[in-house]
Amino acid sequence: MIFNLSKIEDISKNIIKSLKRFPMASLSAFIVTIIIITLMELNHNQLNTPIIIGSIKVAFVTSLGIVLFPALRLFSSNIIMVILGVAILAGYYYVLPHSIDNNIIIFRHIILILATFLILFWSPFAFIRISNKNIWEWTQNLILALSASIFFSILLYMGVSLALYAIERLFNIDIESKRYAQLGVAIFGIYGINLFLSQIPKYILLLQARTYTKAEVIFTKYILTPLTIGYFLIVSAYSIKILITGEWPSGIVSWISILFSVIAIITYLFWTPLWREENIRFKRAIWGAVFAQTIMLAISIWLRVQEYGITESRYFIALFGAWLILMSIYFIFRREASYKWLFITLTILLIGSQFGKYSAINVSRDNQVLRLESMLNDFNSSKITKKRAENIYSTIRYLFIHHGIDSLKSVTPDIIKKYNDTNSSSYFPTFAIKELGIEDILNQNSNERVVIHIKKMRDIIDIEGYNKLINFKYDKYCTNKGNLYQELTFKIENNNLNILKDKEIIKNIDINKFIKKLKIKKAYNIIETEKMEYLDEKLGIKILFKSIIVDKNKIINLHAYILLK
What distance in Å separates the CA atoms of residue 556 and residue 560, rounded to the nearest whole number? Predict the structure, then answer.
């Protein structure tokens, strides 16, 4: 018990020291936590007020500040760094859109947080010469600090949650489920972040490269290394098969090449303390293997871009491939290559991918616009093939969903003008293909893919009688594991919507049965909004469908508002 109390006292002292060392980061974490907890108290219709919209922007800005201020503090403890951090966050607040309801903005924010977090890995030794063993020791310290913070935050959350549950059961007190979610936000947002900050080493030059434990040696030599060799043999054999047959599978080569490269680099880093002097042959062998597989990655992504154009995901795969080639050449030919350039170059590329003419958003949008222009040149709806019609529709839909209707103004100005003049509330991509005269072509042989969309968008959602409103989005290729909402999990399985609590199904809705009642006969269907509603009073559930996509009798995409009692 004495030991435990002394440990708790040490942790408390370290957290207090971190508040003094990183006050702006701690303040940022506190602000984010308060805003999120407050937002969880509001219902869906209250989120569109100017104060709440401004608060969400502040939450975005301060969440970036959690990692930005420590990163700048590691460069220098000068007050100028704090002023610079505030200026950067003020500029970020200015460039954020008025209302953040776009997945692209959220994705961009996550990339910026990741890039800023990477600065922690190199900022202390950016301008000094230091051994790779010291860099690896610093890297391990940060990774262990993050892991420990997550672990102890989970333990604290479980302990307090069990105490609340005990109070519920023993004293027959009803505690709302959202209180548990708010508790989690408070613990991770305040305790977890400050615990991580308290474990960031103060002086990198005082870190001594320690000797691996026996378990770490076994893990590096007999698990990571054989795993890397095994992956290399599999990927190489697969690459040879592709070269012989000339058949390139869609997307598979890219991901297996990336997986191998990540494992190979991790293996190389883990070997750092195990040699007195860096093994040049081993280094060149492992980075040569990464380089060879990156060439296959480059060919694979090039073929995909040639056929379907550039999207954000392909942009980042190509960016990662460029980084791998750059680092491979650097480590193969530079005898005294420094690990810090792994982190510095990746940080620069990630931040650069979010701003300017060559950002992921701008490049993907401009490429898809040019691709659509090319497909619509000398357009003749009577001679167009079904595949070309599908490509036109998918490109219009991609631009509309990811970049808004304004991104199509230069390509389909007349259609957009008619859409606005008629004050149409229909789904624009469907309206566009109808105006282009290719709707019937898309509906030919429509047994495989069916798109269903509401005719008029819902401006107001009546939530009277329900206490939960979930904006549910499902994509087979992104959300297979299910969407989480507080203590509930939502999954699409075998065309059923399953709602789970503690891994047990509490509600089950047959979506396939609902679709059959709509009597769908075409590939692209606009349905009256009132008919796209599912109600089950017994289950206490109401579903307001927005869109459903079925491919080969399997739901692959679904967007709906779910109301629960």
Answer: 14
Cβ distance 296 to 330 under 8 Å?
A: no
Task: Name the pTM for this structure.
Answer: 0.76
Q: Residue 5 burial (CB < 10 Å; 0-12/13-18/19+)?
A: exposed
Query: Which one-letter amino acid corresponds to residue 136?
Result: W
- Is 451 domain-assigned? no
Report the sign of the C-alpha dihedral through residues 492, 494, 496, 499, in that order.
negative
Q: pLDDT by residue (tens digit) across 549-560?
A: 888 778 888 888
State the DSSP string of 106-131.
Answer: HHHHHHHHHHHHHHTTTGGGTTS---
- What are the phi and psi torsion angles at 139 (to 5°)? -60, -45
Number of domains in the chain: 4
Mark whether 336 and 190 lie in a shared domain: no
Token pair in block for residue 326? 């750059």
Q: Are residues 473 and 439 in the same domain?
A: no
For residues 159 and 194, state if they share a domain: yes
Residue 69's pLDDT band (cuts 50, 70, 90): very high
Last residue of a domain, one of 151, 172, 205: 205
Q: Are 537 and 523 in contact (CB under 8 A)?
A: no
CB-CB contact of 543 with 561 (8 Å): yes
> Distances in Å between the alpha carbon of 402 and those of 102, 345, 361, 395, 521?
8, 28, 9, 11, 28
Domain holding 272, by residue range, is 214-355
